[in-house]
Amino acid sequence: MAHSHNTSHGAPAPVGGNLMNAATTVSAVLIAVMLAVLITRFIFGLGAVTNLNDGYPWGIWVVVDVVIGSAFACGGFSVAMLVYIFNKGQYHPIVRPALLASLFGYTLAGVGVIFDLGRWWNFWHIFWPGYANPNSVMFEVAVCISAYIVVMWLEFSPAFLEKWGKHETKKKLNKVLFFLVALGTVLPMMHQSSLGTLLVVMGVQINPLWQTQFLPLIFLLSAIAIGYGVVLFESCIASSAYRRTIETHLLDPMAKIMLGVLACFLIVRFGDLLVRGALVEAFKPTFIALSFWVENLCFVAPFLLVGSATARRNPAKLFLAGVAIMLGGIFLRINGFLIGYDTGPGWTYFPSVPELLVTIGMFAIEILGYIIITRRFPVLPREADHAFSARS
Amino acid sequence: MANTNLLKLEDNDSIVAACKRLEMSKREFLQFCAAMSATLGLPQGAEAAMATAVAAKKRPSVIWLHFQECTGCTESMLRAEHPTLEKLILDVISLDYHETLFAAAGHQAESARKTAMAENKGKYLLVIEGAIPTRDGGIYCKIGGKTAIELTKECAADAAAVIAIGSCASWGGMPSTDPNPTGATGVAAVLGKPVVTIPGCPPNPYNFLSTVVHFLTFGTLPEVDHLGRPKFAYSRLVHENCERRAHFDAGRFAMDFGDDGHRKGYCLYKLGCKGPETYANCPTIMFGDAGGGTWPVGCGHPCIGCTEQGVGFTKPIHMVAKMKNVEPPLQYPRIVEEKGTGATIGSAAVLAAVAGAAAGAGAMVAKNLGLSHQAEEAEKARENQRPGEKAEV
Fold this sequence. Notes:
The complex is a heterodimer of chains A (about 400) and B (about 400).
Chain A: H1 22-44, H2 46-49, H3 60-72, H4 75-85, H5 95-116, H6 137-163, H7 167-201, H8 215-242, H9 248-276, H10 287-306, H11 309-312, H12 315-339, H13 353-376
Chain B: H1 13-22, H2 26-39, H3 46-56, E1 61-66, H4 72-78, H5 85-92, E2 94-98, H6 106-119, E3 125-129, E4 132-133, E5 142-143, E6 146-147, H7 148-157, E7 161-165, H8 166-171, E8 184-185, H9 187-191, E9 196-198, H10 205-218, H11 231-234, H12 245-249, H13 260-263, H14 282-285, H15 345-385
């Protein structure tokens, strides 16, 4: 089923071109800096490089690299769900690029968890039956994300198999691919909601604006919406960077679906705030309230940007809508985990420079990896018609 | 030991008489006996036996000798926090010779001792307070023309039991500290046989009283360890029941007098507390019976190990103790828990730079996308205006 659609659209093909350019060089430098910080961290401990403390045991490495990173990596899951579950075959050309971004996002999120583990050499304990605590939310998240990373590499492996000419293996894989695709839809739904449960577990330490029993649903809906937002963002960036045609005919209807999911999200979000009576917190003159409004303006902005059919044909507006929803996702998670988190008087946290450098390095890996793989492996759809250049 | 039911003793005539004598209420007296029996770790029924024995006023004769010491043991017993304790001690025993408490002096005092020894031959208790000097024939401490060695041997010969009270009598204590000019030593070494020792500087009067009452009730002394210390009081390390033990286990140590950890009541191990190598019941019954919270560790000073030969008066007070059980790791966590630093100029600048670069790049991408979209739209509009030219594209 997967490849039957390929024929009707441009089949995936390597973009080609030189790997040495400004973007890859800068990324490589940032990655080198990150590695230097990480070596220090793994030898001298978390205290040597981070501003983490007993009040804030989770900093940006967890919140940005893992929680936000994995939400940004939901493009593959959101699009795959659209294509394979809702049978919208026309979106098939964007499955692979979306999946690639997800693959990177999730793999790095999984690796990023290890950076934050105090006794990192014990990381395998959570998978070991004698050590694991199956009643813990962390266990669910850890096992689910790990399983999903493996599933995604298998889901994406046809791209490598095509490149290396292993067509027999690919044929065999295609027979079980439906199972992997199903798993690839179920697993992210499980752990994206559980990432919200992590906050539920923290109880009254989380500001009422973010502390609710509906957090799992809120996190899941936002992750799906962000998935589509990330696809908009990536498609526009890829077209802009590689001077390719924008698949507006796909992005336009997908943006409409995104708005639908986003509407569900906002109804649940504000319905919950109203029912709990927590919305009064948003009208107090605090930084937290300001951050709450910025977060929600970002989630409302896509309706203003791409609400009309005409606007959805404009790639600039699609791009900005994608950026807005991603920003909303960033704020929702940072607000919940750090800004709206109060563990008692006196405790403060702001990321240190080395912490920031690691997070920047993680994004640099994603960019560098994306460039190398799209230029060398069949991921992006083949450009059939070069008449419409993005530069014209 | 006929009666083993404490409550049945309430209307016993001898108990009523004892309570009147001691100016205690019946309840108070019986509670006291029950508590003492529990302190000794004796089985149920023993408290009734003790109450009966104390009330019976058998009053063993006690000869109390003082040698090289500061009288602290006697002082702490007489000035016990519990107003009835010294009364009870003086009621339970017949103190026939005690240099501090004697009204008599000189030959009168010495003859009192001799009389008591003759009258209670083989039945009296000999209590020795203070170290015994042995150098130069023991000439450094003489009473009534006799050296401490001679007195000890003379009095011990016909005693039912010998109790060495305080660290000095137990092994030499403070006077035996290097260079020990008088050759101060303990009772057991002079007599050449083991005696019951109740070390401490001073020891808790309860430990002495319990030992005596045990003797009074059962005719024997309580079970002792290899150093002659009653096991009911000296079988556990101070460290084991210490009120600051949780801080030790959590790795929270006072590093300096008056530092944050010290003010918060953290473990004093790093300040040289000898609790981990000292056997005594100070944490449970409090040192010197001075009341709750006033034992050394309770008021923020490390235990000096006064009940332990080779520790108290030997090791420097602030020298770190040799752990008898688990040793803590070499690296200690910080005392002051850092509560986090806010934004620094550097981190804020990096974050701002990233946000700025992202915003700039986003704006440029949006602008370019917008321009190309405009151009496409214009192209389409032109094509619509001139449909004939469409084929040329």
